[in-house]
Structure formats: structure tokens, C-alpha cells
Amino acid sequence: GGSLLGGNAGSALSGNQQLQVLENANDISLVFTDVAMSGMSSDQLWRKVREQWPEVKILLTSGFSEPHVAERTTGAGAAWLKKPYTASEMTIRIRSLLDRQADRYSNEMSG
User: Fold this and answer.
1) How many C-alpha atoms does 36 have within 13 Å on its Cβ side?
2) Which strands, in side-by-side order, build the sheet including 3-7?
3) Which residues on neighbouring strands pair with residue 40, listed in sequence order?
4) Helix (H, G, I), strand (E, B), or coil: what is residue 90?
5) Which 8-state DSSP code applies to residue 80?
6) Cβ proximity of 59 and 101 under 8 Å
7) Were 78 and a residue from 14, 31, 58, 97 both cysteine, which residue would form a disulfide, CB within 3.0 to 4.6 Å?
């Protein structure tokens, strides 16, 4: 199992700070971030994570953007969670993303 890195508009972690955490950690499996974070756009963060850590999953959230916009931006290895959401909805979405990674890994190992 890996760690979860989270940041949102109300947290102390800007997009740049989230990237710094990723650079210094080797066990982060998923980044959970608000589209409206400080320092950079979620699209910039997504591209940087994809370039440097392609195995890390990304879960975006916002109360403003429409899901089809985020889905077009995120692509594979990422998902969208529209605010407001419950803890169980968040857990299901995170589990779904991480399970996809585990399924692909087990398929590669058995193939």
C-alpha cells in the first residue's frame, strides 16, 4: 500500500508543494486535489504528475467545474469527484482508482 497526498483550496499544500512532497516520497499512490488550488492549475499539476510519476493516480474534486470537462483533462489513471460528496463516495472513488492499478499489476505479473 501507498500513501495518499491531498490538497485543496483551504489547505496549506499548493500545487507546487504537492509536487515537492511527491519528489521526496517514494510511496504515494494517489494525489487527491481540488481544481481550485493555489500556485498552479489542476491541469498543470496533472501533466507534471503524469510526466514524472505515471503510476500515481489522481483524483480531482471541485464544486464548480462540470465532470465532462475534468474527464477530458484527466484521462487514464485519474477520476473526478464532484462536491459536495460524502466520505463513502470519496472512499469508493479512491478504492476504484487504486484497484485499477492493482488489477493491471496482477495482470502484468500473471501474463
Assistant:
1) 8
2) 3-7, 28-34, 57-62, 78-82
3) none
4) helix
5) E
6) no
7) 58
